[in-house]
Amino acid sequence: MKITSPSFKSPAASPLAGARGDSLQSAGASSSTATSGKSAVDLSAAARHLSSLGDSANDINTVRVQELRDALASGQLKIDPSRIADGLLASVRDLLK
Known about the structure:
By secondary structure, the chain is mainly alpha-helical. It has 4 helices and no strands. It has helices at 15-34, 45-53, 62-74, 81-96. The longest helix is centred in the N-terminal third of the chain and has 20 residues, at 15-34. The radius of gyration is 27 Å and the shape is elongated.
């Protein structure tokens, strides 16, 4: 079942689309020529931390997950909501610094 009606025109068919695309292409061309030289990027500490998290090799400690599952199933795992709340608040404080 087709949802769109044939009365709708695609944005590319609009007379303004070509002008807008041309202006964006010319802006892109001048931008690329202006930045074709040497460039450097400084990352904030938060950005560096997020970038280091991108390494997916050690995302999940499967041994620890299984230990937690077993402890939860046997009733040995005690969950302290106030400790979880304190940890969350500490994380938020660190992020706001």
